[in-house]
């Protein structure tokens, strides 16, 4: 019994391991909730943490051994299930119940010993069943008769010894491919293929079966889409006899021959294929024969009515002695050891329209062809050096529509495709193109719809490189380069372009005008470049864009503010392989990714590169809530800092006002030393001394004034003296207003303090003396002072006998207001 502490420890370990992103699933999450790879994980049963929405599940190379009923019923979304080499020995009834959407089931390499009669029940949509190398002995006991939706059935590499198909094959009306290769079938007898007699769409693969006998006439009336008999005959004699037994067969595609690593057929006689004279064949393949008879005319005489002829790895050097093929429109010669192009007499091939001569490593010279009706020419994967390309003289025809020169050595342009104006497709990929900047190279190809110049060492310098290609729909130019690694407006003439591939081009920047004229573009591949930014506004003119591939660049994010510029027609976008910065600055982009997960490419996940703790973590796990919390904290912090700054600013601005407030609280209701503190401009000091001081301090009654030149304490800051000696020790404040007062900063400061002082001291008052007339425009500079003078009574100095008498009487009366008896005694003593 496991101790509770151990259980708790295991539970806690499991929980905390799930905190580490990506560890919550026991399998590799290829695409979240959709595709999981569980290969070679030592599982003995189906893992429980696979989501029910999973569509593609790979459980291969796990020791499952036995499959119980409803083993996968929880994963209702499955479409593809791979159980290859899981050592499955027993499959019980109803194992796959609940998989109503499963279309592909792979059981390759399992030593099945026990198979329930209802083992494959519950699979109403199964289209592909792979039971290769499973020890299957008989089709009769194989319980699949109810799988009427099957389209592909692979039963190769088993121990089936009879081709007699069970009657339930008659219900497989949708079956298109039946693979029985590498079994033990030796004879094809009467009735073996009766259940599929009405299925004309079926391809039957009997390769590598040791067929020795085909009963003559038993294939009469049977129509097959394809019959593959590679490596099925141990000798040309057996093949001769078996082909004669195929009389009456109608087959669209017949494949004979061997495998390169297992040559069985020896030399052929000229009559080896005579049995095919009574077989209706449209397409014929001969693969890896050891040799051909010298009489090619007699050897191929029973094939003169075929339409398509493939010779693969055939040891022939020329094809001069050929019968006439009146219906042959396609001839394919693959890896047949040519070192020069074979001479093909047009008289023997009057209807030939397609010629493919490919994969000849020694074929270096392009000789003239004389096939005036040729429309398709494929010379790819040879070692050709074409020094003068390309014109109608090069290929001997003006009717070419499809030309493929890809994967050759060097091609030098000198004729600019004159006479080949009918070309619709041109493939030059992986050739070393010379003089490709001769302008305009493609000017005459007004009908061209497909152009591939990928990996041709092309360096695009001119904006007119594609002039003339007004009908081009598909352009591939991956693996080349552009001037300054910038994509300029070089596609302005390609208004009909549907797909564009400019991957692996070292691009660092794409100008916004580069795509302005591509309104019909549906597929854009700009992957594997060096783009550090990709503005979605670039795609704004692409009204029909469906597929966008920006994978494997250096993008840290897309501009979140411009994501709405991406066309609404998009069905797929690949951004994988970029070093994304999973930081809050890009949260708009990552939120967009989550909302558009259905558009993302499923084969390669998008992962974070920075910060370090998010490295290799899926961007789908980026937490926007954390960003919102961080933004809130930042906002609160900023607000707090702003409040502190505001308080400090207010304290700084009203420091002396606060000092005055503190002083007033300290003094409380105590007696004042002075009757009035005088605020005046230093330029008015003469009037203050001769008039104000003399009349008030020497008159009767006398008043004690606070004057800065006389009463301020030396060594103390002026501002502190103003507050401590002036306001705190005075009952009243006298403000002497003049032009000089208005223009003085110190007077302004003292006046502002006086206002605060008056507000804080209920018994205080300010007496305004207008020493001289001040212009209103100048007075308005002190807005508060101007308002106060308009609302309050003030004294005006008038230097006349009557004026002086009235002035001093009113001023003394104002100063006496609020004066206590103790003040009067002090004044009288001072007078005596």
TrEMBL record:
One Gene Ontology term from the biological process aspect of the record: macrophage activation
Membrane topology designation: Single-pass type I membrane protein
Ubl conjugation is among the record's keywords: yes
InterPro entries: Cys-rich_flank_reg_C, Leu-rich_rpt, Leu-rich_rpt_4, Leu-rich_rpt_typical-subtyp, LRR_dom_sf, TIR_dom, Toll-like_receptor, Toll_tir_struct_dom_sf
Subcellular location: Cell membrane; Cell projection, Ruffle; Early endosome
GO CC terms of this entry: early endosome; endosome membrane; external side of plasma membrane; lipopolysaccharide receptor complex; perinuclear region of cytoplasm; phagocytic cup; ruffle
Gene3D superfamilies: Ribonuclease Inhibitor, Toll/interleukin-1 receptor homology (TIR) domain
Signal sequence, renumbered to the chain: 1-24
First-listed, main subcellular location of the protein, grouped into a coarse class: membrane
Residue ranges annotated for the TIR domain, each copy included: 672-815
GO molecular function: identical protein binding; lipopolysaccharide binding; lipopolysaccharide immune receptor activity; protein heterodimerization activity; signaling receptor binding; transmembrane signaling receptor activity
Pfam families from the UniProt entry: LRR_4, LRR_8, TIR
TM annotation in the entry: 633-656
Keywords associated with the record: Cell membrane, Cell projection, Disulfide bond, Endosome, Glycoprotein, Immunity, Inflammatory response, Innate immunity, Leucine-rich repeat, Membrane, NAD, Receptor, Repeat, Signal, Transmembrane, Transmembrane helix, Ubl conjugation
Source species, domain of life: Eukaryota
Family affiliation: Belongs to the Toll-like receptor family.
Name of the protein in question: Toll-like receptor 4
Organism whose genome encodes this protein: Phascolarctos cinereus
Classification of source organism: Eukaryota, Metazoa, Chordata, Craniata, Vertebrata
């Amino acid at each position: 019994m496991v101790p509770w502490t151990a259980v708790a420890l295991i539970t806690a370990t499991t929980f905390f391991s799930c905190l580490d992103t990506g560890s919550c699933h026991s399998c590799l999450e290829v695409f979240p909730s959709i595709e999981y790879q569980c290969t070679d994980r030592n599982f003995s049963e189906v893992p429980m943490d696979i989501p029910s929405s999973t569509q593609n599940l790979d459980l291969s190379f796990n020791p499952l051994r036995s499959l119980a009923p409803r083993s996968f019923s929880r994963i209702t979304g499955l479409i593809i299930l791979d159980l290859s080499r899981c050592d499955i020995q027993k499959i019980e009834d109803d194992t796959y119940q609940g998989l109503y959407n499963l279309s592909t089931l792979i059981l390759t390499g399992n030593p099945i010993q026990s198979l329930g009669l209802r083992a494959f029940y519950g699979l109403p949509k199964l289209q592909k069943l792979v039971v290769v190398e499973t020890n299957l002995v008989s089709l009769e006991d194989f319980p699949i008769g109810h799988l009427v939706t099957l389209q592909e059935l692979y039963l190769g590499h088993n121990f089936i010894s009879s081709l007699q198909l069970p009657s339930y094959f008659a219900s497989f009306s949708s079956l298109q491919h039946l693979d029985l290769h590498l079994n033990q079938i030796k004879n094809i007898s009467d009735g073996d293929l009766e259940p599929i007699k009405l299925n004309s769409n079926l391809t039957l693969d009997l390769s590598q079966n040791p067929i020795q006998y085909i009963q003559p006439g038993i294939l009469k009336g049977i129509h097959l889409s394809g019959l593959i008999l590679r490596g099925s005959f141990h000798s040309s004699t057996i093949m001769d006899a078996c082909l004669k037994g195929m009389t009456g067969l109608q087959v669209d595609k017949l494949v004979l021959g061997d495998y390169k690593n297992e040559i069985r057929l020896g030399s052929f006689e000229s009559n080896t294929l005579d049995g095919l004279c009574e077989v209706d064949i449209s397409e014929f393949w001969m693969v890896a024969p050891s040799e051909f008879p010298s009489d090619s005319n007699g050897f191929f005489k029973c094939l003169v009515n075929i339409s398509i002829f493939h010779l693969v790895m055939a040891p022939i050097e020329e094809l001069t002695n050929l019968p006439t093929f009146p219906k042959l429109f396609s001839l394919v010669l693959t890896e047949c050891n040519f070192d020069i192009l074979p001479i093909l007499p047009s008289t023997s091939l009057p209807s030939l329209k397609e010629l493919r001569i490919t994969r000849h490593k020694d074929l270096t010279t392009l000789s003239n062809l004389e096939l005036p009706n040729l429309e398709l020419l494929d010379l790819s994967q040879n070692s050709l050096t074409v020094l003068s390309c390309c014109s109608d003289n090069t290929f001997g025809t003006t009717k070419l529509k499809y030309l493929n020169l890809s994967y050759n050595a060097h091609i030098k342009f000198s004729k600019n495709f004159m006479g080949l104006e009918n070309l619709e497709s041109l493939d030059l990929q992986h050739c070393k193109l010379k003089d490709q900047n001769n302008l305009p190279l493609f000017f005459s190809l007004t009908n061209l719809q497909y152009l591939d110049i990928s990996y041709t060492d092309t360096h695009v310098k001119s904006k007119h490189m594609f002039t003339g290609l007004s009908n081009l729909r598909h352009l591939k130019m991956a693996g080349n380069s552009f001037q300054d690694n910038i994509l300029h407006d070089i596609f302005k003439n390609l208004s009909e372009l549907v797909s564009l591939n400019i991957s692996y081009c070292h691009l660092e920047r794409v100008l916004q005008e580069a795509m302005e004229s591509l309104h019909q573009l549906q597929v854009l591949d700009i992957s594997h470049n060096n783009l550090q930014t990709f503005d979605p506004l670039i795609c704004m003119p692409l009204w029909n864009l469906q597929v966008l591939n920006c994978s494997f660049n250096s993008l840290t994010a897309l501009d979140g503010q411009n994501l709405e510029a991406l066309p609404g027609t998009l069905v797929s976008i690949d951004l994988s392989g970029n070093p994304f910065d999973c930081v809050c600055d890009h949260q708009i982009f990552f939120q967009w990714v989550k909302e558009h997960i259905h558009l993302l490419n499923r084969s390669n996940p998008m992962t974070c590169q920075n910060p370090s703790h998010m490295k290799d973590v899926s961007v789908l796990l980026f937490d926007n809530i954390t960003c919102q919390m961080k933004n809130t904290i930042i906002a609160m912090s900023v607000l707090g800092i702003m409040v502190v700054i505001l308080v400090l600013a207010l304290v700084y601005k009203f420091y002396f006002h606060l000092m005055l407030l503190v002083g007033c609280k300290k003094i409380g209701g105590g007696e004042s030393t002075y009757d009035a503190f005088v605020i005046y401009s230093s330029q008015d000091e003469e009037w203050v001394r001769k008039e104000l001081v003399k009349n008030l301090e020497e008159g009767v009654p006398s008043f004690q004034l606070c004057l800065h030149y006389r009463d301020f304490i030396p060594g103390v800051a002026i501002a502190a003296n103003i507050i401590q000696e002036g306001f705190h020790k005075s009952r009243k404040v006298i403000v002497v207003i003049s032009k000089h007062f208005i223009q003085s900063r110190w007077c302004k400061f003292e006046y502002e303090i006086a206002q605060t002082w008056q507000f804080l001291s209920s018994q205080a008052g300010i007496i305004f003396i207008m020493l001289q007339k001040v212009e209103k425009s100048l007075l308005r500079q002190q807005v508060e002072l101007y308002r106060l003078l308009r609302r309050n009574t003030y004294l005006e100095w008038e230097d006349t006998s009557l004026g002086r008498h009235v002035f001093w009487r009113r001023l003394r009366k104002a100063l006496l207001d609020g004066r206590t008896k103790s003040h009067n005694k002090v004044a009288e003593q001072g007078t005596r």
